Amino acid sequence: MDIVQRLVAEKPAVIFSKSSCCMSHSIRSLICSFGANPAIYEIDRIPNGQQIERALLQLGCRPSVPAVFIGQEFIGGADEVMTLQVKSKLVPLLIRAKAIWLWNGN
């Protein structure tokens, strides 16, 4: 889990994904649509991807991707991110983490 913690500490928003996962792509597009520039780690394309996937599963992310961290906190997968969005809580979370600076909502 140390590797996940080190990677998450580098940016205010981090997404672990797989290149073939459509939900990972959707969550990435959603977060980027607010002006955030998350670190994206496609675990099927990096050398230690299997180790990272095991750590994500230990954190409780099922399926293992997408796994979203905002402000160094594990948010969850696609369902949790979409729930935050529907409840209008995703943008304030991104602002608090300094992943985005301002949002006009238009």
Automatic annotation (TrEMBL):
PROSITE patterns: GLUTAREDOXIN_2 (PS51354). GO terms for cellular component: cytoplasm. Residues 14-75 form the Glutaredoxin domain. Keywords: Cytoplasm, Redox-active center. InterPro entries: GlrX-like_pln_2, Glutaredoxin, Glutaredoxin_subgr, Thioredoxin-like_sf. It is found in: Cytoplasm. NCBIfam families: GlrX-like_plant (TIGR02189). Belongs to the glutaredoxin family. CC-type subfamily. This is Glutaredoxin domain-containing protein. The lineage of its organism: Eukaryota, Viridiplantae, Streptophyta, Embryophyta, Tracheophyta.
